[in-house]
Write a structure and sequence with these properties.
Blueprint (H helix, E strand, L loop, with lengths): L5 E4 L2 E4 H4 L12 E4 L2 E4 H10 L3 H18 L4 H17 L12 H30 L5 H10 L2
Antiparallel strand pairs: 1-2, 3-4
Helix pairs in contact: 3-5, 4-5
């Protein structure tokens, strides 16, 4: 008597229990799931499938490209930091042999770099948070215990 009966109502297919308003039985979800990309936590995978936008990762790539350009291109952040060092070394250590640029205000250069680096840090924290959500796919510990026992 445990057969499932179905009724066609409109366009949806309902089980007899759903039709009668009875609670439905859902088999327990296994803790972990094998995928092409390793064993993952089944519950976390389901959560991410319902809420995670993978385009966030592509946006992170764009942000990293922006950082790389700003940091590595000549006459950008790297050179600005070297100039700031020259100014600070001349001003603080009294070493006039440094080829410090003139006509620039040290505190303005420092504040601009500070704001830009703080912005990078904020964006990197956001990227870390996005990536961290995927890290939560790690299988439950019980999976590790099972695999350890099978190795014996």
């Amino acid at each position: 008597m445990s057969k499932e009966f179905s009724l066609q109502i409109g366009y949806s297919l309902l089980s007899l229990g759903e039709y009668l308003g009875l609670p439905t039985y859902e088999p327990p979800m296994s803790l972990n799931q094998e995928t092409y990309y390793g064993t993952v936590n089944s519950k976390k995978l389901l959560e991410l499938q319902q809420s995670f936008d993978t385009l966030q990762i592509l946006a992170a790539v764009d942000a990293i490209d922006e950082f790389r350009y700003r940091i590595c291109e000549p006459e950008l952040m790297r050179d600005e930091l070297l100039n700031l060092h020259s100014m600070a070394h001349t001003l603080i250590n009294g070493d006039s042999t440094m080829n410090a640029p003139r006509g620039m205000c040290i505190w303005e250069v420092a504040q601009e770099l500070e704001m830009e680096i703080a912005d990078f840090a904020t964006k990197l924290d956001e990227i870390a948070s996005i990536i961290g959500k995927l890290g939560e796919l790690a299988p439950n510990e019980e999976y590790e215990d099972e695999s350890d026992e099978s190795d014996l």
